[in-house]
Design brief:
The chain has 182 residues and is an all-alpha fold. The chain has helices at residues 2-18, 22-38, 42-59, 61-64, 69-85, 90-109, 118-132, 137-144, 148-157, 160-164, 170-181. Helix 1 (2-18) runs antiparallel to helix 2 (22-38), helix 3 packs parallel to helix 6 (90-109) and helix 5 packs antiparallel against helix 6 (90-109).
């Protein structure tokens, strides 16, 4: 089950990354967060971090102006191929996931105008998502590796809880308005 889940997510990430599909990467990230909320696994946690990092890499023009960006992108894509090839070897998976994070982080280190690097930002985001799924702040902090205060500040600045609610269609909204205003 574990190897199958990892292999499935890696293939999805590779396809989404090649297609520059930010929303797909975010959906994969949330799937991984749901998985680690039930049963923590370090490799699945790192996959969630990688999804966050790659979605930011794709969406921010500053990364695309980096000298040698194509070499970095190729290195990341080659790492996905290695992950698929060695999907039954936990040690190689761990090392390759770390290699991907290090490669993306190399691009991020060049931009010093941000307080958090991508890995720290991903940990805070994952911590807030775990908290929004009902974990205590302490557990969310322990699992994500983010400081409690960082998670609290992030939650206070975002509308994560609003995005998690199911959307209400217009007919249902009109019913509620009629009830309220008679």
């Amino acid at each position: 089950m574990y190897e199958k889940f990892i292999l499935e997510k890696v293939k999805e990430i590779k396809k989404a990354f090649k297609g520059r599909k930010i929303k797909k990467l975010k959906r994969i990230q949330y799937t991984c967060i749901e998985h680690i909320a039930i049963e923590f696994d370090h490799n699945v946690f790192n996959i969630a971090i990688i999804c966050y990092m790659l979605s930011k890499l794709i969406s921010k023009p500053r990364y695309w102006q980096t000298k040698g960006i194509n070499g970095y992108l190729q290195k990341i894509e080659n790492s996905f191929d290695r992950l698929i090839k060695f999907s039954d070897n936990e040690q190689k998976i761990s090392k390759t996931l770390q290699d991907i994070m290090d490669t993306v982080n190399t691009l991020d280190i060049r931009d010093k105008k941000y307080v958090h690097n991508l890995i720290e930002g991903a940990k805070i985001k994952i911590g807030s998502s775990l908290y929004s799924k009902g974990m205590t702040l302490g557990v969310a902090s322990d699992l994500s590796g983010a400081e409690r205060i960082e998670i609290m500040e992030y939650i206070g600045k975002t509308t994560t809880y609003e995005r998690l609610k199911e959307p209400i269609d217009i007919k249902e909204r009109m019913k509620k308005v009629r009830i309220i205003f008679g």
